[in-house]
Design brief:
Layout lengths: L4 E7 L6 H9 L7 E6 L6 H7 L3 E4 L6 H10 L5 E5 L3 E3 L3 H11 L3 E8 L9 H15 L3 E3 L6 E5 H7 L10 H9 L4 E12 L5 H12 L2 H8 L20 H23 L3 H16 L3 H11 L1 H26 L21
Parallel strand pairs: 1-2, 1-4, 2-3, 6-9
Antiparallel strand pairs: 4-8, 5-9, 6-8, 7-9
Helix pairs in contact: 5-12, 8-13, 10-11, 10-13, 12-13
Length: 350
């Protein structure tokens, strides 16, 4: 007998996309046992939209972030499998069925998650297409057993989530990756393109780069947590950690920024600043050409003219990624170490 499934939709000011999200859940080929929208103290009409769709709405007394909303959703539901879907995602009709099929066929898999389609839920322009195409490509290239779970559209066995301790409510970004560190010793994780959905992504420079900076600040602490001595080996130690950018692209961008930083000193001391400028330019070119498959994919999807804009956005994102990672590595304002169990009040209620 298939397990019961509870769909949890964390929601904050998502009145624009929530109708499509809930309509897609209602249209699933396998109906969930229950659907709960956890409203994270929205100031728009999200609560009314969810109520009009006939689903159960649970309100947070104050805005606490997606981790707390997901934990609240787990506490308010009873299904043996929790399927999390963000309020700005509209699932493909067979998403739940495909996720359950993976969990049924592979008992060792405790979490299965999917990919974004190449068409945005609401088309808001070229910068959103940069985000959509990038996210689709790097998830698609990583399909299989992975070391990272992403919960914008994904299912997890309740008993696995409880054993891991739930989402860390101190985190508003990077919560998926942090939880993944605690999931790996407990179960295998699968990324599949059979679970898919259309996503309404960020479409303004400030939002895109701000999100990238916040997430990048967690890269070094997360890497340290993964390598901490005494950690239990996951069931499949070779399962890769998902990364949106090629490591060589990040390294080349860091080299470019380093060379640019040294240019003023070189001009004062040796007069050799043109050399550093040439190094910076060459390193940046290497960063942008580090993933030719991505560039070919973007050209096929959007054409040659768009590729120029894509490279501009890619440059900005890589620079912000490096700056965020460097600032996140500084020993300032560190709290609880990533990968350690959350405080009791942040755990999924038993």
């Amino acid at each position: 007998m298939p397990p019961t499934v509870s769909v949890v939709v964390p929601c904050f000011n998502a009145a624009r996309t929530l109708p499509a999200c809930l309509a897609a859940i209602a249209a699933q080929t396998v109906a969930p046992g229950e659907v709960v929208v956890v409203d994270d103290a929205s100031t728009d009409t999200s609560t009314a939209v969810a109520a009009a769709a006939g689903v159960r709405v649970v309100g947070q007394p104050r805005n606490r972030g997606v981790s707390a909303a997901r934990n609240r959703g787990a506490a308010e539901t009873t299904g043996a499998v929790l399927f999390y879907v963000d309020a700005d995602v509209a699932l493909a009709p067979d998403a739940l069925a495909e996720a359950l099929a993976v969990l049924d066929a592979e008992p060792e898999v405790g979490c299965v998650h999917g990919i974004y389609e190449t068409t945005p839920l609401i088309d808001d322009g070229p910068l959103e297409h940069y985000k959509i195409l990038s996210n689709h490509y790097w998830r698609r290239r990583s399909v299989g057993r992975v070391g990272t779970a992403l919960f914008a559209l994904g299912a997890i066995r309740r008993e696995v989530l409880e054993r891991a301790g739930g989402f860390d409510e101190a985190l508003r970004d990077g919560e998926d990756i942090e939880l993944s560190i605690r999931l790996r010793p407990l179960c295998a994780i699968r990324l599949t393109d059979a679970v898919a959905g259309r996503h309404d992504d960020a479409d303004r420079w400030r939002a895109v780069l701000g999100e990238q900076f916040r997430r990048s600040r967690l890269l070094v602490p997360m890497a340290r947590a993964e390598r901490r001595p005494g950690r239990a080996e996951p069931p499949e130690a070779e399962a890769p950690t998902l990364t949106g950018q090629r490591p060589v692209a990040v390294a080349a961008t860091a080299a470019a920024l380093g060379a640019l930083a040294l240019m003023p000193l070189a001009a004062l001391v040796t007069g050799g600043w043109p050399v550093f400028g040439a190094v910076a330019a060459a390193a940046l070119v290497c960063a942008l050409l580090a993933d030719p498959g991505l560039l070919a994919f973007v050209r096929r999807e959007r054409g040659w003219p768009y590729l120029g804009f894509f490279l501009l956005a890619q440059t900005a994102v890589l620079v912000v990624l490096v700056v965020g990672a460097v600032t996140g590595a500084l020993p300032v304002g560190r709290g609880r170490r990533p990968g350690t169990p959350p405080r009791p009040n942040a755990a999924v209620p038993r």
